[in-house]
Structure to design on (999 residues):
């Protein structure tokens, strides 16, 4: 911002209670029980009690092998392949007198193949070893007694050590924050290496340790931590710190994870609780499931067939030999010398073909990775992210994709929210036009249609209002009625004021002030939250400061007609969670009123309104439906006033729940929050636009032309998902829609009962719902076979409740038959588990190659289930990328990845393998035919060394060159004629016919 130095407000994700109040309720505590048995003696890791616990050292090893175990483990890996075991048996048999060739000529090819592969493994492992050495030898300051901190290597840290980490240093192990350079014992942490999120996290130490600001403070410090055992959950932690026999609860707010970095804080002190492979980052370092391409699997089948062919040819040869030589025996010895086993041999050994096939297949892949540099057309300059293949054994699979399963938010869209419309007191504000509305206008007809004219009029009106504010990220709102302070002249100005105050106060964002310009920006936990705070600022309510107990806002006062500073006392924060679908803050105004401000999804907010708080309900619902039709994400805003007694009672329960040392602490907190978030008064609703990424409609259209089916699995409402489908060309004009929905009055009533968890739904109701879903699926299947509908492309849209029944064992066959017959499928309100189950179902029942693409942690299951997982490196972190096979920065890069690189790779590898087997079969049969004229005596036609080196050296270069450099058409033609992709999707290049014809 103007290049000025920034001043960060050193107060962040604040809770209304003081961190670290003594826990006074042990009813729910599980510390010491199963899964919660870790005991850490702070500042005394060598005491007698500590030595009774054997914990991991802090030495981290990511190598696959050790020096002493490399040879046996690497050999074991090689001989896990059945083919290699067979080659080994043949090599052993070559040492017997019956062998036609020298043992060396049989052993050398096998040794070369295994040696090259083991050499590749060794080089890769040595690179990992060097990285391990560098990391383990880093140094950090550790307390060695008498208040003296000395530099110690990371590998020498022990559980219980007190460490001092300084600004921009990485945490050497998992630590509990004790204190920092700030009086409030806060620190900023960057977790990019863990989850890819670039926004800084705030951590806060316990009150009981916050005064330990000096090295000398730790001279006599002692404490005992009891906490959960090592696990992979990055976002949870349960434990307690006992100081002078007084326990204090520990939460994720005090946990500093290994490989995260200290930022904007001079130093922190922490105690080591998890070391080495017990740390959460190492617990998360498991590799994704092993995947093999269909081409490689088919090559295995060809090799097995060649083994069978070898046995058959051997049997034929031995039988004919026995028949033709039955009269040549004299005293048990052949009369003709060239028929004697010790002087001759069996004919050509085809086992050398698969040995060299594997070698050349791997060599071609490695050379391809070396010679083909990253494609600059798939480089995203904004985030400096190139396309990255995280595994090299699925390249050719990219050319055979039949179905793509995609997430929506952050994958098809930018996950960069813009505040564009809102409904306040039953009045709709905001004149922006969304991408979905433009697409709908185009779908409804020409510019002469009423909708198109309306959109054109809106756009021209917005252009008239265009001003510098249009450049503000997160704010695309235009409405002169409430901008520039004009809201004070509106009939319901009091409601508008409350609405904007709620936007400015109900959040956990951190203000960031440019000292030169005074401009305030924000670091928020989600793009939605950032958009709300920015909108409040632009509409006259600027949140600019946060302390441990207050939030300060510059807001326009309608009485004085100017901005005034107001400080609201922050009493409690009721945090957002996916199960609650809402968040609230409780504040005390300068006038002494206690207010609960709440924002959340319409599905949970309307049912919490008071009877006298529903004045604008019908109008607000109408506007929410309109916003959903426009592809916008909506939240409902409401508030209530609390009396002192009610708040005091709640605060007591809430603080007690927050201070529990228990694994079910969050559940209890939610139960307490549920009691206070009721009898709300409706203010209105917000609508933010998550714009489509550049090139998404064109990309989807091109993939559809290539014959690839596209499924979208989203958590959005059905109306929103359908309209987004039109905007991104997933749904097209003239496409027949098959809608499977559970939206009936009976089902809605049932869902409300289930959400409230008040009663168990009756079996009869569930059975009726399931029968309804089955009936709708059967109706859809009838359309597939209908001659009238056969000419039309079909699209299937199904909601989450119906999908749950469609995935049941006795229904999923019907569902997948219908879905596979449709050109596009949209699954709405899908949970992460449903995404993974749908992907597995498509992969297993369809039999063709599936590709899943997503950007968030909720997409990991889907990516790992698919044949190919593509992760998008977006703003939701790196968990999807870490679990993927290929990483890209934008969805539109999928077009080039599949239609160009997928096509080339499939063609290269398939042609290479067919070429390889063709030349070997042709060569092998020349020897077989020679044996016909040699009475199948096994008389050699070629020198044994020539036979051994024929594949490995003499004929390998042309095959490998074909597999690395072949390019049938240019990238431009691949994109211009997408139907070329069907060559791989239908697997026309990899067949026995091509092998035998030598095409």
């Amino acid at each position: 911002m103007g290049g000025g130095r920034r001043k960060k407000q050193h107060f962040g994700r604040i809770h209304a209670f003081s961190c670290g109040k003594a826990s006074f309720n042990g009813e729910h505590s599980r510390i010491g029980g199963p899964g919660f048995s870790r005991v850490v003696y702070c500042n005394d890791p060598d005491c007698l009690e500590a030595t009774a616990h054997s914990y991991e050292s802090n030495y981290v090893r990511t190598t696959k092998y050790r020096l002493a175990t490399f040879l046996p483990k690497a050999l074991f890996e090689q001989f896990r392949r059945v083919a290699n075991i067979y080659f080994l048996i043949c090599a052993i048999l070559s040492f017997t007198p019956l062998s036609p060739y020298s043992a060396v000529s049989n052993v050398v090819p096998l040794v070369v193949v295994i040696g090259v592969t083991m050499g590749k493994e060794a080089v890769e492992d040595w690179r990992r070893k060097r990285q391990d050495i560098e990391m383990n030898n880093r140094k950090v300051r550790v307390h060695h007694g008498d208040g003296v901190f000395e530099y110690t290597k990371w590998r020498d840290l022990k559980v219980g050590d007190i460490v001092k980490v300084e600004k921009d240093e990485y945490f050497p192990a998992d630590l509990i924050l004790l204190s920092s350079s700030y009086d409030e014992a806060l620190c900023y942490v960057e977790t990019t290496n863990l989850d890819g999120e670039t926004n800084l996290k705030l951590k806060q130490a316990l009150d009981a340790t916050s005064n330990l600001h000096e090295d000398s403070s730790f001279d006599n410090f002692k404490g005992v931590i009891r906490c959960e055992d090592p696990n992979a959950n990055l976002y949870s932690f349960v434990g307690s710190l006992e100081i002078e026999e007084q326990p204090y609860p520990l939460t994720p707010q005090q946990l500093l994870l290994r490989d995260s970095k200290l930022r904007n804080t001079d130093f922190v002190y922490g105690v080591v609780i998890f070391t080495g492979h017990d740390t959460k980052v190492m617990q998360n370092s498991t590799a994704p499931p092993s995947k093999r391409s269909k081409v490689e699997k088919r090559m295995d089948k060809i090799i097995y067939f060649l083994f069978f062919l070898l046995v058959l040819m051997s049997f034929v040869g031995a039988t004919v030999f026995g028949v033709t030589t039955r009269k040549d025996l004299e005293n048990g010895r052949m009369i003709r010398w060239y028929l004697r086993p010790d002087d001759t041999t069996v004919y050509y050994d085809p086992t050398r073909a698969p040995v060299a096939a594997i070698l050349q297949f791997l060599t071609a892949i490695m050379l391809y990775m070396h010679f083909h540099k990253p494609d600059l057309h798939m480089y995203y300059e904004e985030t400096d992210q190139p396309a990255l293949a995280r595994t090299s054994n699925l390249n050719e699979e990219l050319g055979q994709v039949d179905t793509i399963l995609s997430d929506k938010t952050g994958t098809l869209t930018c996950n960069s929210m813009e505040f564009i419309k809102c409904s306040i007191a039953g009045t709709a504000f905001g004149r922006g036009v969304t991408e979905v509305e433009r697409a709908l206008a185009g779908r409804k007809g020409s510019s002469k249609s009423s909708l198109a004219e309306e959109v054109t009029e809106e756009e021209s009106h917005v252009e008239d209002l265009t001003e510098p504010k249009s450049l503000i990220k997160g704010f695309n709102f235009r409405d002169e009625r409430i901008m520039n302070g004009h809201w004070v002249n509106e009939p319901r100005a009091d409601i508008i004021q409350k609405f904007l105050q709620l936007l400015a106060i109900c959040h956990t964002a951190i203000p960031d002030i440019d000292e030169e310009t005074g401009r305030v920006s924000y670091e928020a936990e989600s793009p939605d939250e950032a958009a709300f705070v920015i909108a409040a600022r632009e509409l006259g309510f600027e949140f600019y400061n946060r302390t441990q107990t207050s939030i300060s806002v510059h807001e326009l006062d309608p009485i004085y007609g100017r901005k005034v500073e107001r400080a609201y006392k922050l009493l409690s924060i009721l945090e957002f969670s996916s199960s609650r679908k809402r968040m609230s803050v409780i504040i005390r105004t300068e006038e002494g009123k206690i207010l609960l401000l709440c924002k959340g999804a319409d599905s949970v907010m309307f049912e919490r309104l008071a009877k006298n708080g529903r004045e604008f309900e019908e109008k607000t619902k109408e506007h929410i439906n309109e916003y959903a039709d426009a592809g916008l994400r909506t939240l409902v805003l409401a508030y209530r006033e609390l009396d002192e007694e009610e708040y005091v009672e709640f605060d007591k329960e809430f603080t007690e729940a927050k201070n529990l040392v228990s694994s079910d602490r969050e559940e209890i907190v939610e139960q307490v929050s549920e009691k206070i978030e009721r009898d709300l008064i409706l203010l209105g609703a917000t609508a933010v636009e998550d714009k489509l990424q550049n090139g998404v409609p064109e990309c989807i259209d091109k993939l559809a032309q290539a014959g690839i089916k596209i499924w979208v699995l989203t958590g959005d409402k059905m109306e929103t998902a359908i309209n987004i489908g039109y905007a991104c060309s997933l749904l097209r004009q003239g496409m027949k829609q098959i809608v499977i929905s559970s939206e009936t009055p009976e089902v809605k009533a049932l869902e409300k009962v289930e959400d409230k968890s008040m009663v168990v739904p009756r079996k009869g109701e569930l059975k009726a719902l399931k029968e309804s879903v089955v009936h709708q699926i059967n109706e859809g299947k009838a359309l597939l076979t209908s001659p009238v509908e056969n000419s039309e492309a079909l699209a299937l849209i199904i909601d989450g409740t119906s999908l749950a029944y469609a995935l049941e064992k006795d229904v999923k066959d019907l569902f997948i038959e219908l879905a596979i017959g449709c050109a596009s499928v949209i699954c709405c309100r899908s949970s992460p588990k449903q995404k993974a189950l749908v992907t597995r179902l498509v992969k297993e029942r369809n039999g063709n190659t599936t590709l899943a693409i997503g950007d968030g942690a909720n997409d990991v299951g889907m990516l790992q289930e698919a044949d190919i997982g593509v992760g998008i490196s977006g703003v939701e972190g790196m968990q999807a990328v870490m679990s993927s096979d290929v990483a890209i920065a934008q969805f539109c890069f999928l077009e080039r990845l599949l239609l160009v690189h997928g096509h080339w790779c499939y063609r290269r590898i398939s042609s290479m393998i067919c070429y390889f087997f063709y030349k070997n079969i042709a060569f092998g049969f020349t020897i077989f035919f020679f044996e016909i004229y040699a009475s199948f005596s096994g008389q050699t036609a070629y020198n044994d060394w020539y036979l051994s080196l024929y594949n490995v050296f003499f004929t390998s270069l042309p095959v490998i060159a074909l597999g690395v450099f072949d390019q049938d058409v240019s990238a431009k033609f691949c994109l211009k004629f997408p139907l070329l992709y069907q060559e791989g999707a239908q697997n026309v290049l990899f067949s026995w016919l091509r092998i035998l014809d030598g095409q």
Q: What stands out?
A: The first helix runs from residue 48 to 51. Residues 10 and 186 are 7 Å apart (CA to CA). Residues 388-412+693-745+764-901 form a domain with the Rossmann fold fold (CATH 3.40.50.1000). The chain has a mean pLDDT of 79.
